[in-house]
Structure to design on (311 residues):
């Protein structure tokens, strides 16, 4: 496995993302979609806490913060779309009422598909991805926070502009996202929107806030980042804030891999179409000495640590 070319590495560092078409074979796509559909149909709704997933950027809405979410780092758990529920609970049980079948109401499945699901593990912990990580300069890459993101037809929620290193902070920042399109993603069904170059110091790509566990209380919150805001080797320059003029709406075919720099701003719109937009994503951080994974991050390492990509 040869990893990325010099031109691909240069493009990633220039733009903050890189699209690799046809990265997955049709067999690999079919295998993970079959697994996804099995998981979505077979989980037990009666014992589920009906946890919804929200972004937490709305001051009137708490982010997912209960134990079901916070203890999902080494499990396979299911999180629902906010718009999948009736505004009134069931009068008999007092539980929220789904407006759609459960398999069409889930926002995402997470957060350890890469260790617990053989089809997802196969496309995560492999030599191809290890070669890419080496191309990007990783010494001891560790895989964490794997998710199937469903973007359900008509209700798949928007995700506002954010940086992945806000959620998986290392000192200094090191996160890179692996985002696989399992179905075609385009402007009509909530595809990725990337703000080109917004990861750079000159574009204001500093990590200014962090998503952490609350101290002395359950739940999560955003706090001001007081640690390093840029990865090692990234130059501090005169800052100019990124502009929406730099926004590129991606057209990504099924089987493509999108690499996403942890400091780049990216987002997606609500899926208003009748087409789902399944994507699988996980993140890689530097695990070697000199990069510290923060103990307040919402996701904490399982026993034995995060998965090594170099075996």
């Amino acid at each position: 496995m040869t990893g990325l070319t010099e031109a691909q590495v240069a493009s990633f560092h220039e733009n903050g993302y890189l699209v690799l078409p046809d990265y997955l074979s049709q067999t690999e796509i079919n295998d993970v979609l079959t697994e996804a559909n099995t998981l979505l149909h077979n989980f037990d709704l009666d014992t589920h806490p009906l946890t919804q997933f929200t972004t937490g950027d709305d001051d009137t809405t708490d982010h997912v913060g209960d134990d079901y979410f916070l203890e999902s780092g080494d499990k396979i758990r299911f999180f629902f779309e906010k718009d999948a529920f009736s505004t009134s609970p069931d009068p008999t049980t007092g539980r929220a009422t789904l407006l759609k079948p459960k398999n069409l109401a889930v926002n995402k499945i997470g957060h350890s598909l890469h260790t617990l699901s053989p089809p997802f593990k196969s496309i995560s912990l492999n030599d191809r991805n290890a070669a890419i990580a080496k191309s990007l300069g990783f010494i001891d890459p560790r895989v964490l926070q794997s998710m199937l993101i469903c973007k359900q037809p008509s209700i798949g929620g928007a995700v506002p502009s954010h940086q992945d290193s806000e959620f998986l902070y290392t000192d200094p920042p090191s996160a890179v996202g692996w985002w696989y399109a399992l179905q075609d993603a385009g402007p009509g069904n909530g595809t990725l929107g990337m703000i080109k170059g917004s990861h750079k110091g000159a574009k204001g790509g500093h990590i200014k806030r962090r998503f952490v566990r609350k101290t002395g209380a359950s739940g999560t919150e955003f706090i001001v980042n007081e640690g390093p805001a840029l990865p090692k080797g990234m130059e501090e320059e005169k800052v100019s804030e990124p502009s929406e003029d730099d926004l590129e709406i991606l057209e990504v075919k099924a089987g493509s891999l999108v690499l996403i720099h942890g400091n780049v701003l990216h987002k997606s719109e609500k899926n208003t179409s009748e087409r789902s937009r399944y994507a699988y994503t996980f993140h890689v951080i530097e695990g070697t000495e000199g990069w510290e994974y923060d103990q307040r991050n919402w996701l904490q390492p399982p026993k034995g640590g995060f998965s090594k990509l170099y075996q």
